[in-house]
Amino acid sequence: MLALDKLNVWYGAAQALFDVSLQVAGGELLVLQGLNGAGKSTLLQTIIGLGPRSTGTIRFEGQLITQWPAQRRAQAGLGYVAEGRRLFTGLSVQENLRVAARGDIAASEAWVLDLFPVLKTMLQRSAAQMSGGEQQMLAIARTLMTQPRLLLLDEPCEGIAPVLVENIVQALLTLKAGGTALLVAEQNSVLANRADRVSTLVAGQLRV
Ligand code: ATP
After folding, report:
1. From 3.30.70.100, 3.40.50.300, 3.40.50.150, 3.40.50.720, which CATH number describes the 2-207 domain?
2. How far is ligand 1, taken at its centre, from the CA of residue 189, in Å?
3. What is the pLDDT of residue 139?
4. Contact indicator for 124, 98 with CB cutoff of 8 Å
5. Which atom of ligand 1 is nearest to the CA of 83?
6. What is the pTM assigned to this prediction?
7. What mean pLDDT is predicted for residues 76-104?
8. Could you tell me if the CB of 81 is within 6 A of ligand 1?
9. Residue 70, C-beta contacts closer than 8 angstroms, at least 6 positions apart
10. Domain extents for the chain?
């Protein structure tokens, strides 16, 4: 589904990633570990087309997408949830879901609410009045409204209560069972323990 070959990425003169190659198959959960500053966010941003200057190739479902702008990658089936949740806090839960939707909104909404039942109980609530963990669920649910086939998540469990972490892990395992490919930057070992594979970035280089 996703194949990276020898990605090198620079912020100005400073190189952040060195010859990173990896593959993620449909229905596979790959957890990316690494210390702060190792390059996890940079790698995810490069895959979705929002990274800085890079060389190397990115293939998605057999197509060479390296030169595609971010919007085209999203339309092709890449979904991304940034670190730290970027919600529309002035909108309700339901409005947050609906602004992101493509295609059959009602069907997508029913599907994501089944994945995150907690959100069903607070559809009219302002996103500003949710806990951090609830907001993280909403951020993931909102991205899922676009029905991505590859989901990239940046630290989805960071700073979240254990019970909600378990909810998120369960939702990700359900997505995986449905064939979605998952690449998740995450230090939390709860997710790494359930992954098909764990790779570690060390100072911009991948240790498989
Ligand atoms: P964290 O978990 O702290 O976000 P990370 O593993 O995601 O860490 P990155 O944020 O990808 O790491 O950072 C990789 C390297 O790139 C670091 O050396 C960082 O200082 C540098 N870097 C990140 N963003 C920028 C930027 N906008 N401009 C310059 N350098 C950057």
Report:
1. 3.40.50.300
2. 21
3. 95
4. no
5. 4
6. 0.95
7. 89
8. no
9. 48, 49, 50
10. 2-207
Rounded CA-CA distance 6/57 in Å is 7
Residue 38 CA, ligand 1 centroid: distance in Å: 7
Question: Ligand 1 pocket, 42 CB below 6 A?
Answer: yes
Task: Quote the mean pLDDT of the chain.
Answer: 94
**How many CB atoms lie under 10 A from the CB of residue 35?**
12
> pLDDT band for position 208 (50/70/90)?
confident
Say yes or no to pLDDT of 187 above 90.
no
Nearest to 4 by CA among 77, 57, 45: 57
* Substitution site in 36, 202, 206 for ligand 1 pocket (most atoms within 8 Å of beta carbon): 36
**Nearest-atom index, ligand 1, CA of 43:** 11
Which letter, b or e, does each residue of 147-166 get, where b requires 16 or more Cβ atoms within 10 Å of its Cβ? Answer: bbbbbbbbbbbeebeeebbe
CA distances from 13 to 7, 53, 112, 134 (A): 16, 10, 42, 39
